[in-house]
Specification:
This is General transcription factor II-I repeat domain-containing protein 2. The chain contains 5 helices and 3 strands, in the order H-H-H-H-E-E-E-H. With about 180 residues, it is α+β, with helices and mostly antiparallel strands. It has a 3-stranded antiparallel sheet.
Length: about 180
């Protein structure tokens, strides 16, 4: 090949390569957007305490609305996976992320306090709820629902204390950081 032919060949291959890369980038961003959309729907399903299978119903509604408003974008909406299994895994991923964020905040606390409440839900199951309030070195106060534990069987003091301990272990709250005050 002459030098001119090589340059032409390199330019041609370069153009083909960049068009293929753009194809994969476009597909990747569409898939990322579909995944992001499925997280939004899963978050709202969990937030509003709806059935996990409602994701499929939401998708049907989205597709019908899409047919009316933007039929050319229907493929984008069809790529959003909202099956019961996907919604469940998205909610679990959101839970892990929120728990991780809370654990990192707890790790930065200089002092913290725990409040707990025990009540019975609609199914006659006793629930123990732990709230944590902490202050970091910048005197920023954080107050969060730390966890909810089901009390199976009895609700004696030893049962409540056991679930309290397990809740602290799950969140990795150091006992030495808990500020204890007694009120009588």
């Amino acid at each position: 090949m002459s030098e001119y032919e090589r340059k032409q060949n390199v330019e041609s291959l370069s153009k083909k390569s960049s068009s293929r890369q753009n194809f994969f980038k476009k597909g990747n961003t569409t898939q990322e957007a579909a995944t992001h959309a499925s997280y939004i729907v899963a978050y709202n399903i969990a937030k509003h305490n709806k059935a996990l299978s409602d994701g499929e119903f939401v998708k049907q509604c989205m597709l019908q609305v899409c047919n009316v408003l933007c039929p050319d974008k229907k493929n984008n909406f069809q790529t959003v996976n909202l099956s019961r299994k996907t919604v469940t895994s998205r909610i679990e991923a959101i839970d892990k992320n929120l728990t991780s964020q809370l654990e990192s905040k707890i790790d930065q606390f200089k002092f913290c306090s725990i409040a707990m409440d025990e009540s019975t839900d609609i199914n006659d199951t006793a629930q123990l709820v732990l709230f944590i309030r902490g202050v970091d070195e910048n005197f920023e106060i954080t107050e969060e629902l730390a966890c909810m534990r089901s009390l199976k069987g009895t609700t004696k003091g030893c049962d409540i204390f056991r679930e309290f301990q397990e809740g602290l272990l799950t969140l990795k709250v150091p006992i030495k950081k808990i500020w204890i005050s007694w009120t009588l």
